[in-house]
Amino acid sequence: MEITVTVNGQPYTRTVEPRLLLVHFLRDELGLTGTHWGCDTSNCGACVVLMDGVPVKSCTVLAVMADRHEIRTVEGLETSDGLDPVQQGFRAEHGLQCGFCTPGMMMTARWLLDRNPTPSDEEIREALSGQLCRCTGYENIVRSVRWAAEHETAAHAVPDAIPDQRAGTSAPRTRSDSEVQA
Ligand code: FES
Ligand code: FES
C-alpha cells in the first residue's frame, strides 16, 4: 500500500506492507532510529512517538494507520532555536543512564508539558507510568521533566513576573543553548 506520513514536518511517501509496524517504518524505511524498539508488546514505552500530538506506542500502530497523519519523533524535538527544554532537562538532571528508554520518556514529557506546563511530581509520574526504565529508578527522570517545566515557564513569563533568581532552587534561571551544549 502507498502511504504518505508527515514525520517531523516532512512528508514521506512509501509503499509498505499492510503488516508493517510504525516503529519499523520510522526506523527501517526512514532511518529515524531515535525511536527505540524494545519489548514489542506494548509494555516498555521506548517506542513512543506523537501521532497528531498524542503519544502512541509505535510498536502497536501499523504504518498504514499513520497514513495522512502527523508523527513527531525524538529527532523532531530539537529546533533551530536549539534543544527542546525537555532534552535540556534530561541533560541537566542526568535523566538517563543507558538511554534506551529516553526517547519515549522525552516524547511523553513533551506531550505532558504541552497540555500542562506546571505539572506536579505526581502528574509527571502518572504521565510516564506507561514507560519503563531499567536504570535510573525514575527519580532523575521526574526531576528532568520538572526542570523542563520550570525553565519553559520561566522562558515564557513576562519579565516582571520572573521570580528574583530563586536562590536555593534547582532552577535559578534559564540556560542559553550555548551553556547547555558546552
Ligand atoms: S517496544 Fe513498544 S512498548 Fe515496548
Ligand atoms: S536509562 Fe536505561 S532504561 Fe532508562
Automatic annotation (TrEMBL):
Name a Pfam family for this protein: Fer2
GO MF assignments: 2 iron, 2 sulfur cluster binding; metal ion binding; oxidoreductase activity
InterPro entries xrefs = 2Fe-2S-bd, 2Fe-2S-bd_dom_sf, 2Fe-2S_ferredoxin-like_sf, 2Fe-2S_ferredoxin-type, Beta-grasp_dom_sf, Diverse_Oxidoreductases
Q: Where is this region: Disordered?
A: 157-182
Recorded hits in Gene3D superfamilies, A to Z, give: 3.10.20.30, [2Fe-2S]-binding domain
* Domain of life according to the entry: Bacteria
What region holds the 2Fe-2S ferredoxin-type domain?
1-77
Q: Which pathway does it take part in? A: Alkaloid degradation; nicotine degradation
Alphabetically sorted, this entry's keywords are:
2Fe-2S, Iron, Iron-sulfur, Metal-binding, Oxidoreductase
Q: Which SUPFAM superfamilies match?
A: 2Fe-2S ferredoxin-like, CO dehydrogenase ISP C-domain like
| Protein name, per record | Aerobic-type carbon monoxide dehydrogenase, small subunit CoxS/CutS-like protein
Which organism's genome codes for this protein? Saccharomonospora glauca K62
Top-down, what is the taxonomic lineage of the species of origin?
Answer: Bacteria, Bacillati, Actinomycetota, Actinomycetes, Pseudonocardiales
